[in-house]
Amino acid sequence: MMKIFSVFGSFLIIGVIGCAHIIVGTDFDKTKINQIVKGKTSKEEVAKIFGEPVEKGTEAGLERWVYINRVTSATPKPEWLGLSYRGDIRERMLVIIFGQDTVKDIMFSETTRPFASSLGLNN
User: Fold this and answer.
1) pTM tops 0.90, yes or no
2) Residue 9 in 3-state DSSP?
3) Which residue of 5, 53, 98, 113 could cross-link 63, Cys pair, CB 3.0 to 4.6 Å?
C-alpha cells in the first residue's frame, strides 16, 4: 500500500511542479571508461574512478560490479478526465567482471527511450 501511495505521490508532485526528473542509481562519468584496462586495472582503481557500485555479485564464479544510472524526465499534459505524462528515460549501465583482482571484462550500454503514462479516469 505504501508503494502505491509513493508512486501516486510522485505523480502528484510531478503534476504540481510541472515537470520532474526521477533518478535511480548513481551517475558515473562514461568518459573514464577508457581508463580501465583489461588484465591490468585493479578493483581498488575501479572504485577510485567510479566509486562504489550499485550492485556487487558473482557471474560464473567471477566477481561482478554494476554501475547504473537511470533518469526519467516527465512533463504533465492535461487530458480529458486525467493527466498524462510524456518524456524519456535515459539509462546508462556499466558492468565490470573481475578475474582475481583485475578487470577481466567490461560492458557498457546507453539507451534512451520514450516514456508515457496516464493518471485519471481515462485509463
Assistant:
1) no
2) helix
3) 98
DSSP class of residue 23 equals E
Q: What is the pLDDT of residues 25-79, one digit of tens each?
A: 888 899 999 999 999 999 999 999 999 999 999 989 999 999 998 888 777 777 6
Which residues of the chain form beta strands (DSSP E)?
Answer: 20-25, 55-59, 62-79, 82-99, 102-120
Q: Which three cell numbers stand for residue 80?
A: 480529458
d(CA 119, CA 14) in angstroms, rounded, equals 11
| Sign of the torsion formed by the C-alpha atoms of 23, 27, 30 and 31 | positive
Containing 50, the helix (H) or strand (E) segment is helix 43-50
- Nearest residue to 72 via CA among 31, 32, 108, 23: 23
